[in-house]
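Example noted here:
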Amino acid sequence: PVVTLFLLPVFFLQMTKSVTNPEELGGLASQMTNDYGHLALQGRMAAATAEPEEIGFQIRTRVQELGHGCIFLVQKAGALQICPTDGYTKRELIECARAVTEKVSLVLSALQAGNKGTQACITAASAVSGIIADLDTTIMFATAGTLNTENDESFADHR
């Protein structure tokens, strides 16, 4: 979902710039609608697997709010295509694009909150890998005899 989320603001920016070329808005709105459809599907899967359950609810809610914002944005784009010289509609389109960009950041924060457990596991696995590498290095030096104590004991005796 994150890849799709990063693409959506690009379309909002293009929509905002297309205020001067309203004929481009139809294609942009269509592409944004397709991208949101993919995001909604991926968001549903992310919400279903999120722990705790309230994070899943938050993801689902924020993706829905983003969808509502996208609907308003597409409606304003259509209105601007109908009347390309209307300054009020141009301002509304820009305001909708800003609101949708804010909603994208809220979805991202919800997804990041849902990934905290995954990130903790990655961090722990990295720490364990580091410890294993340190132990392997110590074993290598001990086997070579560079870590032997001053008495007659050897690493092989304790291994």
Observations:
- The two ends are 49 Å apart (CA to CA).
- The mean pLDDT is 75.
